Amino acid sequence: MESTRTNKSINKRIDNLIQSISQINMGRQLNIMEVCGTHTMAISRNGLRELLPPYINLISGPGCPVCVTSINDIDYLLEIIRNYDVSIFTFGDMMKVPGTSSSLYKEKSNGKDINICYSPIDAIEFARNNPQKKVIFVAIGFETTIPLTSVIVKRAYKQSINNFYIYNAHKLIPPALQALLEDREIRIDGFLCPGHVSTIIGSKPYKFIPDKYRIPCAISGFEPLDILSSIEMIVRQLKEGNPKVEVQYTRVVREEGNPTAIKEIEDVFEVTDSVWRGIGNIPNSGLKLRPQYSRFDAKKVFKVKNVNSKEHKTCECGNILKGLKKPTQCKLFSKVCTPESPVGPCMVSSEGTCAAYYKYERFKIR
Ligand code: SF4
């Protein structure tokens, strides 16, 4: 009885939000970009696209950490595996991401020592218990996951675990948003900013978006009500001509973020450029280990030659990660490319846009 009342109240609030959004018609299409794989999945799973008026166009950006890891990084890792006797630890989604000629999954089938882990703690524990092995943790992800990598690197340093390394492909979200805004091909009218990343960095790092580019931002939670409220914030800001960074996800996100986690990141890493799959090099969007910790850098220790990466010719992941195309505009979508047989990373990852469309929207796309 109580849950029926709660559902009715949620449905009522959703109806009100849809009504409120529909009342703000700017007379043109509004491209609202989410930059978080969990938002991408939530939008598709809950059918939010269909609830919105047709001029609200929800597009996905580079918010899936697996998807934005460059093909060069995959190929480099594969070369390390082929040339050195190492144990690799990685998150499961990375296993099937195609490199130019292979993947971690295929190499594991060929007998290479590649292990799925749920946390870098698994990797460092394995290294400590197996001092004869050289253990590499594949460190991917945004500001949300970086603090844990920092903690692990510090632990390896303090405990002199000298057979542990990280293959660092961490990336930072705000510089990527700036790169998208500087790209004249892409038209973005508002950002649904990522909830998880923002719990770490807070709302301040997005301030340049309304200040310099006059684009509204709403930091959103992950429930349908959160996302619709955030969309309402964005269209209202547009209508009022008053772009700013609004925090919808006030349950968790503070203006200053999480200073402890930020300090962890800054203790271990310094900012550098980084190459994003499909987008290319983005200044100041990556991290490198500070000199004190550089001996844990797998790329410095396990050097390889001849990494000549080539993206798949027909895969549109690059355009999808920039919000220029939708998965259904890729010729391979659901015909050649499926979650069982993915051609690009956007279909591999459980947070990828192509995977979200395949799972929830492939029969009802608009
Ligand atoms: S459907 Fe497959 S091939 Fe097409 S863009 Fe997505 S991942 Fe790439």
Descriptive labels:
366 residues, alpha/beta, Rossmann fold, five-stranded parallel beta sheet, 17 helices, binds iron/sulfur cluster
Topology diagram in text:
Elements: H1 2-22, E1 30-34, H2 37-45, H3 48-51, E2 56-60, H4 65-68, H5 71-83, E3 86-90, H6 104-109, E4 114-116, H7 120-129, E5 134-141, H8 146-158, E6 164-170, H9 173-182, E7 190-193, H10 195-201, H11 208-213, E8 217-219, H12 224-240, E9 245-247, H13 259-268, E10 269-276, E11 280-289, H14 298-301, H15 317-321, H16 345-348, H17 353-361
Parallel strand pairs: 1-2, 1-7, 3-4, 3-5, 5-6, 7-8, 8-9
Antiparallel strand pairs: 10-11
Bound molecules: iron/sulfur cluster.
Description of the structure:
- The chain is α/β, with parallel strands linked by helices and 366 residues long.
- Among the domains are: 68-172 and 257-301, Rossmann fold (3-Layer(aba) Sandwich); 317-361, no CATH class.
- The protein is 42% helix and 17% strand.
- It has 17 helices and eleven strands.
- It has a five-stranded parallel sheet with strand order 2-1-7-8-9. A four-stranded parallel sheet has the order 4-3-5-6, with helices on both faces. A two-stranded antiparallel sheet has the order 10-11.
- A hairpin with a 3-residue loop joins strand 10 (269-276) and strand 11 (280-289).
- Helix 1 packs parallel to helix 12.
- The longest helix has 21 residues, at 2-22.
- It is globular, with a radius of gyration of 21 Å.
- 48% of the residues are buried.
- The model has no long low-confidence stretch (mean pLDDT 95).
- The structure holds iron/sulfur cluster.
- Iron/sulfur cluster binds at residues 315-317, 320, 327, 330, 332-333, 337, 342-344, 346-347, 354.
